[in-house]
Amino acid sequence: MGEEKISPLAGKPAPPSILVDIDKLLAAYTEVHPDPSNPLQRVAFGTSGHRGTSFDGSFNEWHILAITQAICDYRLKESVGGPLYMGFDTHALSKPAFKSALGVLAANGVEVMTSKRGEYTPTPAISHAILVHNRGRDSGFADGIVITPSHNPPDNGGFKYNPANGGPAGTEITGWVQRQANDYLAKGLAGVKRVPFAQACAAATTHTHDYLDAYVGDLGNVIDFDAIRAAGLTLAVDPLGGAGVHYWAPIADRYKIDLIVVSEEVDPRFAFMTVDWDGKIRMDPSSGYAMQRLLALKDDYDVAFACDTDHDRHGVVTRSTGLLKANHYLAVMIDFLFRERKHWPASLAIGKTVVSTALIDRLAKKLDRRLYEVPVGFKWFAPGLADGELGFGGEESAGASFLRRDGSVWTTDKDGIVPALLSAEITARAGRDPGAAYRALADDLGSPLTDRVQAAATPAQRKKLANLSAGEIRLEAIAGDPVTRVLDKAPGNDAPIGGIKVITEHGWFAARPSGTEDIYKIYAESFRDREHLDAILDEAQRVVDTAIA
Predict the structure, then answer these.
(1) CATH number for the domain harbouring residue 313
(2) Is 15 within the bounds of a domain?
(3) One domain for residues 328 and 370
(4) Dist. CA 310–CA 520, nearest whole Å
(5) Residue at a domain's end among 445, 472, 495
(6) Most C-beta atoms within 10 A of its C-beta, which of 171, 249, 292, 326?
(7) Which CATH number belongs to the domain containing residue 495 in this structure?
(8) Which residues, 6+ apart, have CB-to-CB distance to 316 below 8 Å?
């Protein structure tokens, strides 16, 4: 068992030696053609779309042309006749992918909505646009494409399809699109329709949409800005050079709040970042290593926050605790929203993933709310947020969204902006910052300790772990506590979790194989102490190794 090794560069300014060569990256995007016989160079939709880098043939122009044509085919098959909302983030590969995709969409006669001023577009703004267009309709539904690899390193690209429910596409859709796209790759793009970018821009089917004004103008229906303004809070935001970089000043201006934007710099190398735990540049607002710039300012503001590159993840910094752990802030948001949103129906459930803190389970019981526990991936929350079954959906990786103040849908994809702003509302209305609010919750319900470790596994063992059934785990106790439940499917929707989860009264562990490396990861939590957590981790590895031997 190995702990994740911390790089000596972690938390320090990025040295020139690790900065990506943008010219070479962009050249590889068009010059490198993926080999469809190589599984690592085929289209592969993970939990958040197709991702990769142009350097190794995993994210290149051919991928985007093939995927976009496959999406056009899917729209035709399913009679999706409304506009397609498309935007891109500040990663270097995102704009070239946008240009490639627009050429295919225009050639296929798809009505496309691009940003009005050509600016970058946050993921939640696209989800919001889809949902607003589709509200009250029974035909002409819109969908969208989000071009982002999220908080991944600067040499990465990402491409994601959001269907008419506004959230990440489910496996039944991504599986079809993936197969169709790989078929186009295998045929050397035969059958892919395309026009030059300039012609696509001039096409009668290409339109603009004011994502910024529509999204910012609607935020008052989600966040109580009157309370923030009345409290006189001083706030700061670090956009981390991401897609929402030009959204924050309009938010401050429209709602008259004292919000300072720490930096509006956009640099596709992300040279202004401090290095993440593994020596890579990663725009992760839940990582203390990556958040050093904002942490240095924590005592200057009542609350400060940041979002990742496509602004679908959040990080909150308070005077009382510094950077809140993602799981801790999820619990704080849930506690506040389900107590303070008086117009929310009592039937609304709380959504969490199987590797999120069990503090949420205890909180749901205290709030007398149904818990909806799903596998990793925000796509599992989209239908519930759309149809009013869920009030909140959140992932342990600092991704969340929740309903409007009146209980109607806001976004069905992760939204980093509203959880960030909610930290200010919590401070204003509760009279204490989210760090202090978490300490109160922990004093009441228990203070969990969490950790994650990894171990080597062959491809065959990774496959066996992914398909492991609960019945194959014969275990009476873990770390001295009786086992109360073993899961291979999520309790909320009965979907396979791609691994195993073992639960006791005072802790749990979950084991899942990596999708890209010959390792598996164990997530664990203890409500006792560090010694108990270490015992869970040690015993978990023995259990998993025996099961996959």
Answers:
(1) 3.40.120.10
(2) no
(3) yes
(4) 28
(5) 445
(6) 326
(7) 3.30.310.50
(8) 303, 304, 305, 323, 324, 329, 419, 420, 423, 434
Whether 165 and 229 share a structural domain = no
Q: Which residues are catalytic?
A: 150
Distance CA 390, CA 351 (A): 7
pTM: 0.96
Task: Give, for 286, the enclosing helix (H) or strand (E).
Answer: none
Q: Nearest to residue 414, comparing CAs of 43, 47, 44?
A: 47
Q: Are residues 128 and 259 in the same domain?
A: no
For residue 3, is it within any domain?
no
**549 residues of the chain, pLDDT tens digit each:** 455 689 999 999 999 999 999 999 999 999 999 999 999 999 999 877 999 999 999 999 999 999 999 999 999 999 999 999 999 999 999 999 999 999 999 999 999 999 999 999 999 999 999 999 999 999 999 999 999 999 999 999 999 999 999 999 999 999 999 999 999 999 999 999 999 999 999 999 999 999 999 999 999 999 999 999 999 999 999 999 999 999 999 999 999 999 999 999 999 999 999 999 999 999 999 999 999 999 999 999 999 999 999 999 999 999 999 999 999 999 999 999 999 999 999 999 999 999 999 999 999 999 999 999 999 999 999 999 999 999 999 999 999 999 999 999 999 999 999 999 999 999 999 999 999 999 999 999 999 999 998 888 999 999 999 999 999 998 999 999 999 999 999 999 999 999 999 999 999 999 999 876 778 999 999 999 999 999 999 999 999 999 998
How many domains does one find in the chain? Answer: 3
